[in-house]
């Protein structure tokens, strides 16, 4: 059974859904605790207030997800950083060998 969209929840609370879909939503709510909790929360709010609240939450979530995407970078894309690390390690090894040979 498909998930309940925000619009469907509001339409269910207003009683404007077809009878068959209302029955499906009631079955889903009886089986799924998160859906029932979401519907209960919407019942407590006025419908315009609920719509505004859910849109605000969606916007906040969207901006947070964008921040996370900007923060995470692929290690393989840092080509020059890898080259610098390899060159430094090679210089350390060569320096160690030269010091060992000289002593």
Query: Which term fits the overall shape?
Result: rod-shaped
Report Rg.
29 Å
Instruction: Work out the helicity level.
Output: over 70%
Class based on secondary structure composition and strand pairing: mainly alpha
Question: Low-confidence runs (pLDDT<50, min 5 residues)?
Answer: none
Termini distance? 77 Å
N-to-C series of helices and strands: HHHHH
> Strand percentage, roughly?
under 5%
Number of strands: 0
Major sheet, described briefly? none
**Number of separate helices:** 5
Give the averaged pLDDT, no decimals.
79
Question: What is the structure about, briefly put?
Answer:
It is built from five helices and no strands.
Produce the secondary structure layout.
Layout: H1 6-14, H2 19-31, H3 33-44, H4 47-71, H5 79-102
């Amino acid at each position: 059974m498909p998930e309940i969209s925000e619009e469907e929840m509001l339409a269910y609370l207003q009683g404007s859904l077809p009878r068959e879909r209302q029955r499906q939503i009631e079955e889903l709510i009886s089986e799924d605790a998160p859906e029932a909790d979401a519907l209960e929360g919407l019942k407590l709010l006025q419908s315009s207030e609920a719509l505004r609240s859910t849109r605000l939450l969606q916007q906040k979530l969207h901006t947070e997800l964008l921040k996370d995407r900007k923060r995470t970078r692929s290690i393989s894309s840092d080509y020059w950083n890898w080259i610098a690390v390899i060159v430094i390690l090679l210089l350390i090894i060569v320096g160690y060998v030269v010091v060992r040979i000289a002593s």
